[in-house]
Amino acid sequence: MLKGKVALVTGSTSGIGLAIARAYAKEGANVCLNGFGDKDAVEKERIGIEAEFGVRAIYSGADMSKGDQTEAMVEGAIKSLGSVDILVNNAGIQFVSPVEEFPPEKWEQIVAINLSSAFYATRAAIPGMKAKKWGRIINTASAHALIASPFKSAYVAAKHGIAGFTKSVALETATFGITANAICPGYVWTPLVEQQIPDTMAARGLTREQVINGLLLHAQPTKQFVTVDEVAALAVYLTGDMARSITGSIITIDGGWTAA
């Protein structure tokens, strides 16, 4: 379905981003990976994608908190792979703290990586998409783009911002064969979620079991974590021709969390 296309997925060395990148490669797209992680492990994953799916896979270690590096990553992918037809702004970090104790440097870092990086990457990718009259921009938001949780002020603010940014880009590109949508997962079992559990335990005075079953899964009526493969399948669908009229949408995949 995506043979000849190029997909750039930020934050794709693990979790949701890696699942999306692999799903695109399975459909025939060449991919550009991005993110932090062990150098040897990342290279093993890159080589594995090429071998398993018969596509080209490159890697950029660009720091998504730096606008110039983000734009250079897009330009590098275009130079190496010929284009960026599909852009998935997925990079994200989390920090849990009462707002009065929230370190300003953590606020700045979360907003930079979770929100501003999407601006810089989109800004760099859109001219090429417009020239080809085809493009797909998918922003990984969160249920927190629609509702709030305590102790996550920066993350919630950034994800609400992503929702608004997605809608504006969709309106600006609607006549160029480009769509822009945001996927809003609930709690997905990823390293990001796992890493925030100790902080939430400390912030709320809860045990690990209480955080997982009484707080995280309590929010989702299905009482199950969303899987990375479910999110990836939605991302693949949004790139297809049958999704060409879906743009400016904030799409939840949250086990019913935001239905309440």
Query: What is the spatial order of strands in the main beta sheet?
Result: 3-2-1-4-5-6-7
Instruction: Classify the helix fraction into a percent range.
Output: 40-55%
Envelope shape:
globular
* Estimated structural class: alpha/beta
Describe this protein with a few key phrases.
260 residues, 8 helices, single chain, alpha/beta, seven-stranded parallel beta sheet, Rossmann fold
Describe the structure.
With 260 residues, the protein is α/β, with parallel strands linked by helices. It has a single domain (6-186, 226-254), classed as Rossmann fold, CATH 3.40.50. The chain is 49% helix and 13% strand. It is built from 8 helices and 7 strands; from the N terminus they run βαβαβαβαβαβαααβ. A 7-stranded parallel β-sheet has the order 3-2-1-4-5-6-7, with helices on both faces. Helix 3 (67-81) packs parallel to helix 4 and helix 6 (191-204) crosses helix 7 (208-216). The longest helix has 29 residues, at 104-132.
